[in-house]
Amino acid sequence: MQGLPRRSFLLGGLATGSIALIACGPDTQPALPSEELSFLTPAFPDGFRQAPILVAGIAQRLTFLVRDEIDVMRESAPADLAVRVRQGDTVVLETTVARRTEGIITPYFPLVMTFDAPGEFVAELPDHPTVEPVPFLVADRVDIEIPQVGDPLPSAPTPTVDDSKGVTPICTRAIECPFHEIDLVDAVANDKPTVLLISTPGFCQTDICGPVLDLLIDEAGDRTDLNVIHAEVYVDPSDFATGGFPELTPAVNAMALPFEPAIFVAAADNSIRARLDTTFDRSELRDALSLV
């Protein structure tokens, strides 16, 4: 099935995981959530509404949100979910996935599993039989360009405080972050592990983006043993104001990303040890950083 172009996907945000906030005027009251789990929502490109990103043969991370009839469940989200994954009538996995929510607003449930072969799968909640299963596609690894765990971290020029490389601004955070001191090209050539976060905090459209850059500042801002780099998504986001679509930065193109945010954690030999897509909390980030 034809997916959305990568540029359109980045512009529109993660459609399947987008969180619609209820707008209220001065004379209206928001609808009250029922706090009953009604929907399971993928917070990753499912292969139907967007091109697939999941591949067979290596562990993959699938993030899910839960919703009631009104909105994404936050405080009322369950502590864990029993999840079943099927391919046709064949059950390929049954497991329990713990909620992650440390340091972020919207809880999510990260399922990690390995698919033996490409194909169409569904995820369902056996404890909630009225909740519709979520279909998704898994591709052959050779068809997906996004670097996987175990692959080398690609090199690409990233702007620094001394050389913007034409990217303006180099950081869309309200207060510029400290992760623009070294170019990714130089980072992959030295003998330190590298952490690369691709995100555009000034243009985050949903709260599943979360304060991911702030979390990274908290967890790695003082780590002198790491190369830590934040790369923006757009070369010049002011192009939006004239009805255009900004050029994507070299880092986004090098990683072949159709979404943001994404973080890559690579060892000193540049092999990727962890990749977290679309949303992550403090605890998952801490786990990823511990691998290097």
Report a brief summary of the structure.
This protein has helices at 6-12, 184-187, 212-220, 250-255, 282-289; strands at residues 39-42, 60-67, 80-87, 90-98, 109-113, 119-124, 134-138, 194-198, 227-231, 262-266, 272-277. It has five helices and eleven strands; from the N terminus they run αβββββββαβαβαββα.
Can you describe this structure?
This protein has 292 residues and is α+β, with helices and mostly antiparallel strands. It folds into two domains: 33-143, Immunoglobulins (Immunoglobulin-like, Sandwich), CATH 2.60.40; 184-289, 3-Layer(aba) Sandwich (Glutaredoxin), CATH 3.40.30.10. Helix content is 12%, strand content 23%. The chain has helices at 6-12, 184-187, 212-220, 250-255, 282-289; strands at residues 39-42, 60-67, 80-87, 90-98, 109-113, 119-124, 134-138, 194-198, 227-231, 262-266, 272-277. It has a four-stranded antiparallel β-sheet with strand order 4-3-6-7, with no helix packed on it. Strands 9-8-10-11 form a four-stranded mixed β-sheet, covered by helices on one side. β3 and β4 (90-98) form a beta hairpin. α3 packs across α5. The longest helix has 9 residues, at 212-220. The chain starts with 5 loop residues before the first helix and ends with a helix. The model is unreliable at 1-9 and 11-31 (pLDDT under 50).
